Amino acid sequence: MLGYLGKRLIGLVAVLLVMSFIVFCLQSIIPVDPARAMAGPTAPLATVEMVREKLGLNDPLSTQYVRFLGNLAEGNLGTSIRTRQPVAADIRKYAPASIELGLVAMLFGVAIAAVLAILQNSSPRSGPVPVLVLAAGSTPIFLSALLLVYGFWFKLGWLPGMGRLDIRRFAGPTGLNLIDGFLVGKPEVSLNALSHLILPGLALALPIAIAVSRSLNGALHDVLKQSYIRTGRGKGLSEATVVLRHGLRNAASAPLAMIGLQVGLLFGNLLIVERIFAWPGLGLYTVQAFSSSDLPAVLGVSMVFGAFYIVVNALIEICQSLADPRIGL
């Protein structure tokens, strides 16, 4: 395990170095002048040149890249042009909302995927479940998010469709409202946070559920044909026990790999869902950074997402090894 973690750590550093080089190159070739954007569109040239000198944009590219790496090593991701705050501080401010939404979406997605896979294995191939999966998988995420907002918020009024909380000026110790409400002795805050999480969580969960259910369905279909499954049925075990206790664990490797891939897609979907639901997380922060040509913010968030994706996939590989001892690290 220690050898695996050491290799993963070296790989993480190497990937981050490559990402930093790509990010720096993009920052150098994209036709956006950071000095002009920070000084303002109406600022005189003298002010723009002063800002350019302050940012070190007149230095050679090699010097700028070394300085860029030094800032990254210190956790300095630059200063946001839009908010005028350090990007690292902005990420710490907006990350809890995205983490909370992402975790809920993954839980929803995995739960729905397990139910769909079990239903598909227990129902005929021409039944309604495969048709439902096909229809849901063919729907773009922005359309499914808009349909959820229109149906459950605008028409029925059952669930809120904007923001994280109806309660203003609430700040918990972790930034995760779903947990903080219980930590501070205010369960009504947690319930209100849960009601706001359901619609955006479902919108993010649907693509995850469809992809994972297809993978789990195929793996479960093969596992349920094995001899030990027939032996369990012959001993009189119920079908639920056979599937849940003996089938799902042995079929978990492929779905776990699919979950790792879906984490990468989740970052892109956050931009759409947080924009539609006005969710104050990193997705909305990045969309606003795009609209204001705030390149340091976009690149800082990209670096953080890249590092998080590598860590998550390492955890996925560990879970695969635990689920199936034949898979070594």
Topology diagram in text:
Elements: H1 2-29, H2 34-39, H3 45-55, H4 61-73, H5 87-122, H6 128-137, H7 141-155, H8 177-183, H9 187-223, H10 227-234, H11 239-250, H12 253-276, H13 282-291, H14 295-323
In words, what does this structure look like?
The protein has two domains: 2-73, no CATH class; 94-285, Orthogonal Bundle (MetI-like fold), CATH 1.10.3720. With 329 residues, the chain is mostly helical. The chain is built from 14 helices and no strands. It is globular, with a radius of gyration of 24 Å. The longest helix has 37 residues, at 187-223.
Based on Cα principal axes, name the global outline.
globular
Q: Per DSSP, what share of the residues sits in E-state strands of 2 or more residues? A: under 5%
The CATH architecture classification of the largest domain is Orthogonal Bundle
- Would you tell me the overall average pLDDT? 80
Radius of gyration: 24 Å
Largest sheet: none
Q: What sequence of helices (H) and strands (E) makes up the elements?
A: HHHHHHHHHHHHHH
Task: Supply the CATH class of the largest domain.
Answer: Mainly Alpha
List keywords for this structure.
mainly alpha, MetI-like fold, globular
What can be said about this structure in brief?
With 329 residues, the protein is mainly α. The chain has helices at residues 2-29, 34-39, 45-55, 61-73, 87-122, 128-137, 141-155, 177-183, 187-223, 227-234, 239-250, 253-276, 282-291, 295-323.
